[in-house]
């Protein structure tokens, strides 16, 4: 996961890109749907998953195990 530093601009950091997940979200969206919606934002799927992990730990979203649906707080 990229964090802002003197070598990484804020706009290039994963923390900054997480806002793209939250902007335009819809209840009942799947992880695949988020990937398609934010395809040009993240470098790869791993960076997207890191961002989703951070949002999950912060309590901003939950993912249903059975269905894979995302619920935003």
Summarize the structure in words.
Helices cover 40% and strands 12% of the residues. The protein contains three helices and three strands; from the N terminus they run H-E-H-H-E-E. The protein has helices at residues 14-22, 31-37, 45-57, and strands at 29-30, 61-63, 69-72. It has a three-stranded antiparallel beta sheet. Helix 1 (14-22) crosses helix 3 (45-57). The mean pLDDT is 89.
Features:
12% strand; alpha+beta; 3 helices; 3-stranded antiparallel β-sheet; 73 residues
Summarize the structure.
This protein has 3 helices and 3 strands, in the order αβααββ. With 73 residues, it is α+β, with helices and mostly antiparallel strands. It has a 3-stranded antiparallel beta sheet with strand order 1-3-2.
Helix-strand topology string: HEHHEE
Topology, number of strands: 3
Radius of gyration: 12 Å
Secondary-structure content class: alpha+beta
> How would you state the average pLDDT, rounded?
89
The largest sheet has its strands arranged as 1-3-2
- Biggest β-sheet: count, sense, barrel? 3 strands, antiparallel
Helical fraction:
25-40%
Shape, please?
elongated
Show unreliable segments.
none
Our count of helices gives 3
Through-space gap between termini = 23 Å
């Amino acid at each position: 996961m990229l964090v802002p530093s003197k070598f990484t601009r804020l706009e290039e950091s994963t923390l900054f890109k997480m806002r793209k997940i939250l902007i335009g979200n819809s209840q009942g969206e799947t992880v695949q749907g988020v990937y398609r919606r934010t395809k040009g934002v993240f470098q790869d799927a791993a960076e997207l998953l890191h961002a989703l992990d951070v949002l999950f730990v912060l309590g901003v979203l939950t993912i249903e195990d059975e269905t894979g649906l995302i619920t935003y707080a």
